[in-house]
Design brief:
Layout (H helix, E strand, L loop, with lengths): L5 E7 L7 E5 L12 E6 L2 E10 L13 E2 L11 H10 L4 H8 L9 E6 L1 H9 L4 H11 L3 E2 H8 L5 H9 L3 E6 L8 E8 L11 H13 L1 E3 H7 L3 H10 L3 E8 L18 H11 L7 E7 L5 H14 L3 E5 L3 H15 L3 E4 L5 H12 L5 E4 L11 E7 L16 H12 L2 E6 L4 H8 L4 E5 L10 E6 L15 H12 L3 E5 L6 E6 L16 E3 L4 E3 L6 E3 L12 E6 L1 H11 L5 E4 L9 H10 L5 E4 L12 E6 L13 H13 L10 E6 L5 H7 L3 H15 L6 E9 L2 H21 L8 E13 L2 E10 L2 H14 L1 H4 L5 E6 L6
Helix pairs in contact: 10-11, 19-20, 20-21
The structure holds adenosine-5'-diphosphate (ADP) and zinc ion (ZN) (2 copies).
Length: about 800
Amino acid sequence: MTSDTRYIEVAIALPVFRTFTYSAAEPLLELLDPGKRVLAPFGRRRVTGYIFGPSRNLDHKELKPILDVLDEQPLFPPGMVPFFRWIAEYYKYPIGEVVKNALPGGLNVYDYSSITITDIGRRAHKSEPLSPIAKLVLEQLLAGPCRLSKLFKNIGPKIPGALLYNFEQSGWITRKWELSGARTKARLERFVRLADTSLPLDRLSKPRQKILDILKTEQEIALKKVKEAVPTAASLIKPLESAGYLTIEHKRVYRDPFGEPIKPDIAPILNREQQKAVSHACNYLNKGYHPFLLNGVTGSGKTEVYMQVAAAVLKKGRFVLVLVPEIALITQLERRFRARFGECVCVLHSGLSAGERYDQWTRILQGQATVAIGARSAIFAPFANLGVIVVDEEHDSSYKQEGKLRYNARDLAVVRAKQNQCIVILGSATPSMQSYYNVTINKFTELSLPKRVEERHLPDIRIVDLRQIRDARGIQRFITPELQVAMKETLERGEQVLLFLNRRGYASFPVCGACGQAMRCKHCDISLTLHQRSNAYRCHYCGYSRAATSSCDICGSTKIKHLGLGTEKLEDMLTSLYKKARIARMDRDTTTRKGSIIKLLKGLKNKSTDILVGTQMVAKGHDFPNITLVGIICADLSLSFPDFRAGERTFQLLAQVAGRAGRGNRPGRVILQTYNPEHFCISAAQNQDFKAFYQQEIGFRQALAYPPFSRMIQLKISGKDPHETEKHANLLGDHCRKLKTIHAAHYRSLEIMGPIEASLTRIAGRYRWQILLKGSNTGALHQFINQLRSESHPEFNHRRIQVAIDVDPVFLM
Ligand code: ADP
Ligand code: ZN
Ligand code: ZN
């Protein structure tokens, strides 16, 4: 090859585990920045790949050239390449698919460019000397605009990569990149600007003069804004433009996901603990990697700490990434951050349309957004120079991504901070066992906010034993007299009540009244839930649904008893019990529509809701100042799950829900109903005593060598045929044991548990088996799985049986 050939490392968006080297020649040489996509030959296909940088591979024989560079601007900064590599290695995922997963949806392989021939091109086709292939391409285009993929299909793969580029440079063709469905069309808005200030104003009408007055002070302003002051502006600006007074320009504007005006706020004066936390964290700014755990009780003002650290980071010219577990919380946090920081804030989460997400992504890349707030996938926000990563409610299990690339955004925040050499703040009122353990072994620095702001008290939590009302009927079965009295008092004072029940739907346990058979999902090993509002039984695992009028599968009886309380039923019961109260419900069923969460939050804020019923969605970090009573309907629902984290999750959930009470000026109280009043999770939650919980729980973990004293990797084996799946699981189990025996010394600390049938034996028609690998030596554990995967190739690439590798699994069921 000639000297003006360069070699680049490319990650291909296919299930392959390594990167590849390609060559590139003029005229693509100028375009080879890391972070851009390329079109590259792979086997007999052409696929999308991502440039990682110059190749480190020195063997350049017979390398294939890339066909094209697909982006004008990189989609991620080069600093993210090591991050992608780390993720691929640690989570055992194909590197190109890691990148594909990280980029905003819609940007991936399926976009295409549409090519149109220009007049110059038409003339060239007639008069220029052309190579046969160039002629063919132009002829194809004469028939009309054509997609790149169609061009390749019709002409074959012989089109040289540089050909289209050369055509474009010579002005023979124009190319337009589009996403399928054209979802990323930028939104344009009209802006007006004063043009000639010397023109006379006195002969103009009043409204026209007013418009020009506005422009004199504003320089440039959106027409929308002008219309607010001069309603007829739309019809006036055109003539003003023609007369030379002003210019109109279409400018790209960024879609605001919520579209509500937010008033700027002023930072409050921090209390002593907050001040200490902020200055401690700021001491470490621009001094490399440093991890903090901000351990602050509910309502202690953690968000204020994040914001003031963020302000310091921005002052130093670096960027801020804030992760939040739930979209509803993004809304709240976004408002607070926007009020403080204004336009430089952007949000990233799955509730945005593909176009909106693409916009936000570009704003970050172009340095217009310097603060990003988002759910777990925002850990991939394309910042080049982060100063702080904040993970709010760091204990929350929704940071764990299930399916596809299985990662934990909280853990990745620490990794990214280390690679970026910046600080990371994990915040929670109920830290995860893992994070607090890291404090005790000095891996993390603890920042602590032990008190609520402004001398507010933590709520008074009363435990009520549910066993006393076991035989009660109707609503009395679910709402104890104690809770009823408290609700009545609260409502009479005009304050708000929050009722927590971690089960959505109407009835979670429909049973045949004639034969006693439970209504079960066809595809899963689980009961259906009745959803009365949508008139259907639904499976919460696979989405299967059948009509609410269905009869028993076994005996055909139509007498179905609707046992098991869900939020829908609770809401109905409350409606008949508290006729005057305005009741709202917040769970996954009521929050699917865009804007519905904001509506619910607004109802609480402007006091048009008296009672809010909700699932764990309401437990998470919300700041509802008028709620003075929280009722926990049944604290035990998650306690009996067959998962070693059941206790940790229950404690977190209860302490968090309880923490929603009394966050305003009036004191709050909590009534916690339970069948297990003596359980230490319950009593620790009652005292909002994280340390007491931790001390107990860490003892169990140590005794059983569970995380944080070990790490786990779970193999999830699933297939449609029960016998085949079981056989496959056993085969894989045998491989594991054999491997361990062969390298007995090296894998001494490693434990192989299973294969066992999963607790949820069947989901969506797939039978499920599991093998759990556990070890105190992380390196050996990872080596083991790498070796297993390469030596049991056929078992991992079976046509009918899927084997997923879940590193640091969170849901073991
Ligand atoms: P947390 O996230 O710890 O639960 P927040 O940050 O939401 O707590 O703070 C609770 C409330 O207290 C918010 O309404 C916030 O505006 C207010 N707040 C926080 N810090 C202060 C302060 N130093 N002075 C006055 N109010 C504060
Ligand atoms: Zn029956
Ligand atoms: Zn199902």
